[in-house]
Amino acid sequence: MARTSTCSSGFHLFARRLPSLAVVVLAGLLVPALSWGQVFTMTREQMIKYTAKNPYERFPDGRPKVPDALLEKFQDMSSEEIGASRSGFPSQFVDGLQVLHPDKKLIGRALTLQLMPVRPDISEVDAAEWKAQGNQRPRDHQNAIDLLQKGDVFVVDVGGSVASGGVIGDNLAYYILKTTAAGFVIDGAIRDLDGISPMAELAGYYRGATPPAIHNVMVTGINIPIRIGSVTVMPGDVVFGDKEGVSFIPPHLVQGIVTAAQTTHIHDDWTKKKFDEGKYKSTDIYSRPRDPALIKEYDEYLKQKLGPQAYEEYRKNEPGQTPAQTPVRR
Fold first, then answer.
1. pLDDT score at 19
2. CA-CA-CA-CA torsion for 83, 89, 95, 101, nearest 10 degrees?
3. CA atoms within 13 A on the CB side of 106
4. What pLDDT shows up at residue 136?
5. Nearest to 162 by CA among 79, 96, 94
6. What confidence score (pLDDT) does residue 84 get?
7. What is the CATH number of the domain that holds 133?
8. Using one digit for the tens of pLDDT, what is the confidence trace for 243-301?
9. Which domain holds residue 262?
10. Is residue 171 located within the same domain as residue 215?
11. Alpha carbon distance 189, 172 (integer Å)
12. Do 172 and 266 have their domain in common?
């Protein structure tokens, strides 16, 4: 395993690989946290600053902690219902990754790790400092794995490299499963696929599988903004994966997405109920009715299913729409 590290003198090297937000964040990290030597990470104050819209409690390091009860709501959802683009976040969905278990949804909070190609003048300095602090084993990706908690998703940016080897094999995959009860997203490779595949409760997304273990990389950031595909991922984002791909949802959008999905489910149920009657053409009902009597019927059905309080909240948050204009899946 290559020594995995970085130092403040390498800032400009890393800046080219990071999204613009990370550049801003890392510019203020020239004085590192003592526990991590020179690896870039966000202080609690910086984490709060760059996730200021988070309405929920936080982990001790400042990472947003979307409640478990809200995460459970995603079990009945699909990628089509996430709709972050409707909230001004157009690039939060990643496709093209391989899916470990297509029938197993991935739901949890992102813990991020960035790995970059090793550069000896950086890694050697940091390895010496790491050893001088009394550490017996080299710094590597397992330092981030050791931070995982229940409900976390291990999200790793390796720049899409499969040639760098598998970030995890069956043993670390088993640790992730037992620790998080969730899974991983690795924009890079995994290994020991024959050993990982039987773990039916583990959800995972990855670029490819390869026999060699991870090599010639160094840790350049833990719990910082990273890039997965074309998406910037922040620590604490809600990770949602299904057969189609993975979405990374800013915490402040979560409640609105959950409520909209609930309304969409009701709309879908009503639509199929009307089709079952055999009296209407598809355009009479879908994607939304236009007949005043049908609009009124749907409105009453929606209010009954949502409940009066949730219905009023929905109408308040969708002031420009009639109930029949509920967002739908096509």
1. 47
2. -60
3. 34
4. 87
5. 96
6. 65
7. 3.50.30.40
8. 999 999 999 999 989 988 888 889 999 999 999 999 999 999 998 899 999 999 999 99
9. 254-325
10. yes
11. 13
12. no
The tokens of 169 are what? 């094999």
Spell out where the chain has E strands: 93-94, 98-99, 106-117, 152-166, 183-190, 203-209, 217-222, 226-228, 231-233, 238-241, 246-249
pTM: 0.82
Q: Is 40 exposed, middle or buried, given 0-12, 13-18 or 19+ CB atoms closer than 10 A?
A: buried
CB within 8 Å of 283: residues ≥ 6 apart: none
What does the DSSP 8-state code read for residue 324?
Answer: G
Our count of domains for the chain comes to 2
Residue 3 inside a domain? The answer is no
Cα-Cα-Cα-Cα torsion 239, 240, 241, 242, nearest 10 degrees, comes to 180
The verdict on 245 and 273 lying in the same domain is: no
CB contact at 8 A, 51 and 236: yes
Q: How confident is the model at residue 204 (pLDDT cuts 50, 70, 90)?
A: very high
- Are 208 and 259 within one domain? no
